[in-house]
Amino acid sequence: MRIFYLFLILCVGFFGCNDFEYSPNQIFDKDSYKDINEINLNKLGDGSQDDTVRFVLTGDTQESHDETVDFYKKVNSMPGIDFVIVAGDITEFGDLKEMQWVARNLNKLNVPYVAVIGNHDLTSRGRDAFLRMYGKLNYSFIYGGVKFICHDTNSREYRFNGQVPDIPWLKKELQPEVGVDSYVAISHVPPTSPDFDEDLLEDYATIFDQTPGFLTSFHAHTHSFEEFKLDNSPIPYVITSAIGKSEFLLIEIVNNKLSFERIPF
Question: Mean pLDDT across the stretch 38-50?
């Protein structure tokens, strides 16, 4: 009998190890997605034949399971959308299972989507899970002549070390470039938040102010819609409402002019 039980334990351990999550700090398992941003950007292409760029911006999917399902169903019912951007806080505690759940539902979108890192995604082992599942924390892509600058502004999670947001990287990305007519920034924490490094605020705003063709800086984090300008800056900053409040932004860029609409669902 002892031999039988020993055999049973060994079988469970051998065949079942991939079915259990032994640690809340786990960053991947057999069901984990990998390189979602890169895969979806390859599907998206460069939009060189697209004279109208239409995309959806949402954020803060954390703990909003029912609303995330309602969200992708609503977006799928709308014609003419090119892609979706999730502006951070996919998870509440940097948890792998929640990140996978959100990805599994957003993969049901009819259009490609990409994600930006949020402050909650950086807790626990969330940073490592995000890097594996989505990719780089600072990246850019060009679509329809518009360069989208997706970047990490979660300064508090780095103890305000003066390196987040990465000002030198932003300066490089915002240099004039063949085939680029305008620029849009996407990040999680807005520059007015106490979670943004105050010492970097002036440099951050100046880069955007001095970039010809810079249209708007989009954010999430506060869970409420807001539109504002910083002192002496012509650049509009826009915060999308949280997905848990059943609202997202539908953004359109035509002839280097940007407009947006708040869409309830």
Answer: 94
